[in-house]
Amino acid sequence: MYKHDVIVVGAGGAGLRAAIAAHEEGADVALVSKLHPVRSHTGAAEGGINAALHPEDSWELHAYDTMKGSDYLGDAPAIDTFAKQAPDEVIQLEHWGMPFSREEDGTVSQRPFGGLSHPRTTYAGAETGHHLLHTMYEQVVKRGIEVYDEWYVSRLAVTDHDRPEDRECYGAVGYDIKTGEIDGFYARDGVILATGGNGQAFDHTTNAIANTGDGQALAYRAGAPLEDMEFVQFHPTTLPSTGVLISEGVRGEGGILYNDEEERFMFEYGYANNEGELASRDVVSRAELTEVNEGRGIEDEYVHLDMRHLGEERILDRLENILHLAEDFEGTDGLDEPMPVKPGQHYQMGGIEVNENGQTCIDGLYAAGECACVSMHGSNRLGGNALPELLVFGSRAGQHAAGGDLTDPEIPTGPSAESEDGEVDTPVEPGSVGDRSDPVVADGGAVATPEELLEEAIRKERERVDTMLERDGVNHAEVREKVQKTMTENVNVFREESNIKQALKDIREAREQYQHVGVADKSRTYNTDLIHTIETRNVIDNAEAIALGALAREEFRGAHWRKEYQERRDDEWLKHTMLSWNGGTPNLYYKPVILEGHEQTYEPKERSY
Amino acid sequence: MSQSYDRGTVESFGRWLEFKPGMWAWILHKLTGWILVGYLFTHIAVLSTATGVDPAAAAAGNDIYTTTLQSLEELLIVRFLEIGLLTVAVFHILNGIRLLFVDLGLGLDRQDVSFYVSLIMTALITLASLPTFLGGVL
Amino acid sequence: MSTEIQQETETTEEQSPEQIREEVAEDLSEKRREQIQEDLESAEKTVQLKVFRYDPEIEGKEEPRFDSFTVPFHRGMTVLDALIYARDRYDSSLTFRHSCRQAVCGSDALFINGQQRLGCKTQMGDLEHPVRIEPLPHQDVVKDLVVDMQHFYDQMHAVEPYFDPDELPDGELEEQHQTPENREKVKLSTRCIWCGACMSSCNIAAGDNEYLGPAAINKAYRFAMDEREGSDRKQERLRIIEQEHGVWRCQTQFSCTEVCPKDIPLTEHIQALKRESIKNNLKFW
Amino acid sequence: MAEHYSSFEHKGWRWFVQRITAVFLVGVLAFHFITLHFVNHAAEISFAGTEARMGQIGYFSLMVTFLITGAFHGVNGVYNGLVNMGLKGTQKKIVAAILTIATLLLIAQGLRVAVAMSGMF
Ligand SMILES: Cc1cc2nc3c(=O)[nH]c(=O)nc-3n(C[C@H](O)[C@H](O)[C@H](O)COP(=O)(O)OP(=O)(O)OC[C@H]3O[C@@H](n4cnc5c(N)ncnc54)[C@H](O)[C@@H]3O)c2cc1C
Ligand code: HEM
Ligand code: SF4
Ligand code: F3S
Ligand code: FES
């Protein structure tokens, strides 16, 4: 058993930032990650980091833009905290050596980005995430923070009190991928989940193959509710064959979208008469799909993104890596021809419900980064707002877990924050199949000490892995593919009741198949077959939560479009969709949105660009 | 449990085809350098005959130094060795110059071309000098 | 939550879980075989992979061997795609690292047809067939295509790979200034994704296990040349790379530069550091 | 971390001198080859001819410098090569000693020869 004050699960931007913050607070921190830190998907982010740095800009404006972008489903205290702290975090990064792109006078450059009223996106070429990830990992090395890399966390050690709010988290169980050893990470002060996105619930995604929503699933099954999972951002410019992202930076610099008839459709068909290509992502994604559906797509699949008019020099200076991406993954030379693009799953706005300090309703369990939902993105995230979120809330979670002094949170967490019980007609029963007492939570209130609880969790995990390795059965890839296909077909940019229901049925079937899953590779050495099998379970839980939320929310807001409900319905739907695992029979409920901020109250307005 | 397999370096050294120009240049430079050192020692050894020369014999032109050198020069094999030496020296010089440029950070992206140029020029110079070297023995 | 149709899994006779599992698995693997057949038939072309296999724990695999897989080819297919196909359809125990699929995570540097390349960035169409895929040379093989990266990480860490300026601006919200030219100078060096391809291609690193290697030296370059750090720190950085197993070991073989998937001019950076340290030393002579 | 490498000797000078000697050698070696193979054919070399050339102080000192730089460059190169191939510890020290002695002997003998050839002293 490895003992530390704070255990951070996941070493992407959020995890690294949390670890540094906890370390600075004086805690003994360890990072546990299934990938070596520099392999985390934060490294794929291209566009930039928003922060109100310019004197003419202000955090209030940034907060306002974020709230508007969220389509008024963000919680004001979260958004305010975020916008206020983002500039400090960006400067902090600069002090840590981040190679930001610069102005002639040597200051950090900022560029315009979709949905922002002021150019406030700082960036480092078109590889901002790469630099952010590496800069922070370097600081982790500098501080000598312990890193357990290629350790897969598969279980949390959480007490099994009836009410999730009464539960406590004492650590996590990890599987050393290289040796097959299963051991516990005991956390004296807290466990921070920073496991990133869940794009693998879809088959066309900009996310990495490792983005399987492990943290969401772990926390969910341990009792922390998932919030607003139906809000999935589809990025309008991904390469059709692989899903590789072409950064919003291209449009920020002046790239133009054309349909098959070479029309600049964003204006031509009035999708966004003011902002055009720079409108918010959901708007552009839907515009593209509408073009394709109405027969103006190229090869009935995609549209063109053209940046040739920017000139070679500017492209090479600011968007060089876009050229490489288009060349290597699509065989297109961006200097010479327009690039084919189509929408793809990109970002999960929802996630583990936390407050401004990263706390879930379970004592000692924190979450930060894409896996969490403080609710600052609401129903739609603005480009360039995720990276600063990692910094702000990663740092707050780390600080809080290490006992740092932070203001009391205003956002309530846990099922008792419920305002209203949810009603939704599902075609099949969601939740676990058979085994109702889900093994994530340790059993027996009789368990005496936290350490024994962790021991028990380790024992159970060993048992589970042993059975999976011993038996033969269904291959996880089959199950995963089934889920991804149905999600992409049915719970995509355009959503319709019957389709969502179909997805839920398919997911149920996948769950049943999963009951019979077996691992063909019997080795304990670097067994990725086993790891993928465990991940697949998490993919199923994530997909189901997304589909349930999508079915429940009967309105069109932000990234969530419903065929039957073509309007935002503020009177009824200014609330978060919450899902708690409830021991295997998921419970849907709602929690009100907080529009009252630190300094200003936000009035829902029409979101037009 | 966590055993691992060391494929060693031998295997990859056996894969000559997978070598790249820069690596061949390195190997050849090394080889030629070593040959030159070897030659330097031999050369001084041979020239050492000069220390035993007595002035009278030297005047007559049949001192040990002159006879040793000239008898060596009569052997065809020595002539060929000399050509070899020239080749080796020329390549080492040319590639040495290439390396000096590399050290100055000049023309790094053409390093493979300059290696090929060194090879070709070495060949040409060697060919061109054949008559001179073989003169008198053939 | 209410449920429209209560779907009970109805089984007429009681079956043991094992039986059910076997049946389901049987069913699916039958489908899978058909799927492969269909894929292969409908593809315009198929390609052969010859993949290095090794697992110390599994009988028959303790002795390294090559396995062949036939994979349907489609335009734009990368080596990583082909490997994933082979793993997901034929043999789920086929092991390799991968994550981002877009050449940023550095997980899948492999030895493909005799050269170090990223699987996800290498088009199958550009290669000679059959395609031979092996783990990176000069590193211990853990299993199949997975090598032990620890030594590489140790070398990276040895150059103190973190920004450490002599001093910082006082103002809380004040950034350090850096000229665009200086940023340009270090730009390429900051692209490294720690894939280890360069290290694996370098003969010197193969012969001298303690040689810092091109990636680590490039990392040192990234900081030593960054004007924001200041001259005191630069001195220290030069001292680190000047050590016995540092820059002087480099014999300018250029293999590293040729294989680097991020096109970092490694040899150039190493040479620049050599000159930089000579200059630095001459000052004291 | 960095302390893990104990040796912080300034190794740069040998690299540097190798380049400096190389620059010098380019010219001299080419000159040497040309004088002794093309201008004066090797087969026609005689002690008298040698003595005539070596008698000139300029040529003499050029050849002596050639000898010293060549010896240094060559042996230093060999030593570097061996070290790069993984020579270390006591073995390395022994090799270094042997090479130094050999070089010194070579230079000493070379000087003796040169003096004899020059007939100056
Ligand atoms: C292509 C792309 C481009 C983007 N561009 C931008 C942009 O320009 N601006 C912006 O603001 N945002 C952008 N985003 C969004 C942003 O990059 C992500 O939301 C963010 O990087 C997520 O960071 P994270 O730290 O939460 O997770 P990640 O970086 O994904 O890290 C997850 C970590 O958790 C670990 N982990 C996962 N599961 C487990 C487990 N079970 N056990 C142990 N460890 C585990 C992983 O190893 C990894 O270290 C982009 C996203 C993508 C995909
Ligand atoms: C005439 C011009 C010469 C030039 C331009 C030249 C250039 C060089 C250079 C640049 C190196 C360093 C290679 C490296 O460290 O990467 C080198 C190495 C070497 N040189 Fe020379 N050299 C010349 C003549 C000689 C002579 C006359 C000898 C023999 C006495 C010689 C023997 C060597 C040896 C043995 C090495 C080391 C090879 C190795 O790496 O193992 N060189 N040369
Ligand atoms: S320098 Fe290039 S080859 Fe080496 S680790 Fe970095 S990215 Fe990979
Ligand atoms: S391959 Fe090795 S020898 Fe130098 S130029 Fe690259 S580090
Ligand atoms: S999969 Fe990330 S670099 Fe290839």
From TrEMBL, chain A:
Its recorded name reads succinate dehydrogenase
State a GO cellular component annotated for this protein: membrane
Q: Which PANTHER family match?
A: SUCCINATE DEHYDROGENASE 2 FLAVOPROTEIN SUBUNIT, SUCCINATE DEHYDROGENASE [UBIQUINONE] FLAVOPROTEIN SUBUNIT, MITOCHONDRIAL
Q: Which SUPFAM superfamilies does the annotation name?
A: FAD/NAD(P)-binding domain, Succinate dehydrogenase/fumarate reductase flavoprotein C-terminal domain, Succinate dehydrogenase/fumarate reductase flavoprotein, catalytic domain
Q: Does the keyword Oxidoreductase apply?
A: yes
What cofactor(s) does the depicted protein rely on? FAD
**UniProt subcellular location:** Membrane
The organism that produces this protein has a lineage beginning with: Archaea, Methanobacteriati, Methanobacteriota, Stenosarchaea group, Halobacteria
Task: Say which domain of life the source belongs to.
Answer: Archaea
- Per the database record, which ranges form the Fumarate reductase/succinate dehydrogenase flavoprotein-like C-terminal domain? 480-609
Region labeled Disordered — which residues?
399-444
Q: Which residues act catalytically here?
A: R281
What sort of enzyme, by top EC class, is this?
oxidoreductase
Please give the family membership noted in the entry.
Answer: Belongs to the FAD-dependent oxidoreductase 2 family. FRD/SDH subfamily.
Query: Keyword set for this entry?
Result: Coiled coil, Electron transport, FAD, Flavoprotein, Membrane, Oxidoreductase, Transport
Enumerate the spans annotated as FAD-dependent oxidoreductase 2 FAD-binding domain.
5-387
Q: Which GO terms describe its molecular function?
A: succinate dehydrogenase (quinone) activity
| Membrane topology, as annotated | Peripheral membrane protein
Which InterPro entries does the record associate with it? Answer: FAD-dep_OxRdtase_2_FAD-bd, FAD/NAD-bd_sf, FRD_SDH_FAD_BS, Fum_R/Succ_DH_flav-like_C_sf, Fum_Rdtase/Succ_DH_flav-like_C, SdhA/FrdA/AprA, Succ_DH/fumarate_Rdtase_cat_sf
| Coiled-coil stretches noted in the UniProt entry, renumbered to this chain | 451-513
**Which Enzyme Commission number(s) are listed?**
1.3.5.1
Any Pfam family from its record, for instance, is FAD_binding_2
Automatic annotation (TrEMBL), chain B:
- UniProt entry tagged with the keyword Magnesium: no
Which parts of the chain span the membrane according to its record?
21-41, 76-101, 113-134
Q: Which GO terms describe its molecular function?
A: electron transfer activity; metal ion binding
Q: Which SUPFAM superfamilies has this protein been placed in?
A: Fumarate reductase respiratory complex transmembrane subunits (SSF81343)
Task: List UniProt keywords, sorted A-Z.
Answer: Heme, Iron, Membrane, Metal-binding, Transmembrane, Transmembrane helix
GO terms (BP aspect): tricarboxylic acid cycle
What are the record's GO terms for cellular component?
Answer: membrane
Task: Give the UniProt subcellular location, in the record's own words.
Answer: Membrane
A Pfam family this chain is assigned to: Sdh_cyt
Q: Which InterPro entries does the entry mention?
A: SdhC_prok (IPR039023), SQR/QFR_C/D (IPR034804), Succ_DH_cytb556 (IPR014314), SuccDH_FuR_B_TM-su (IPR000701)
- Main location per the UniProt record: membrane
- Residues folding into a coiled coil are none
Quote the PANTHER family the UniProt record gives: SUCCINATE DEHYDROGENASE 2 MEMBRANE SUBUNIT SDHC, SUCCINATE DEHYDROGENASE HYDROPHOBIC MEMBRANE ANCHOR SUBUNIT
**Protein name (database record):** Succinate dehydrogenase, cytochrome b556 subunit
Question: Species lineage, top-down?
Answer: Archaea, Methanobacteriati, Methanobacteriota, Stenosarchaea group, Halobacteria
What gene codes for this chain? Answer: sdhC
TrEMBL record, chain C:
Protein name, entry field: Succinate dehydrogenase iron-sulfur subunit
Instruction: Give the first-level EC class, as a single word.
Output: oxidoreductase
**InterPro entries tied to this protein:** 2Fe-2S_ferredoxin-like_sf, 4Fe4S_Fe-S-bd, Beta-grasp_dom_sf, Helical_ferredxn, SDH/FRD_Iron-Sulfur, Succ_DH/fum_Rdtase_Fe-S, Succ_DH/fum_Rdtase_N
Do you know which NCBIfam families this protein is assigned to?
Answer: dhsB, PRK05950.1
Its needed co-factors are:
[3Fe-4S] cluster; [4Fe-4S] cluster; [2Fe-2S] cluster
The ranges of region (Disordered) come to 1-40
Record field: compositional bias (Basic and acidic residues): 19-36
Automatic annotation (TrEMBL), chain D:
Cited SUPFAM superfamilies: Fumarate reductase respiratory complex transmembrane subunits
Q: What are the annotated GO cellular component locations?
A: membrane
Location comes to: Membrane
Q: Please indicate which superkingdom the organism of origin belongs to.
A: Archaea
- Main location as per UniProt: membrane
Example GO molecular function term?
metal ion binding
Please give the start and end residues of each transmembrane region. Answer: 20-39, 59-82, 94-115
Which Pfam family, just one, is annotated for this protein?
A: Sdh_cyt
Keyword annotations from UniProtKB, A to Z: Heme, Iron, Membrane, Metal-binding, Transmembrane, Transmembrane helix
Q: What is this protein called?
A: Succinate dehydrogenase
Query: What organism does the record attribute this protein to?
Result: Halovenus carboxidivorans
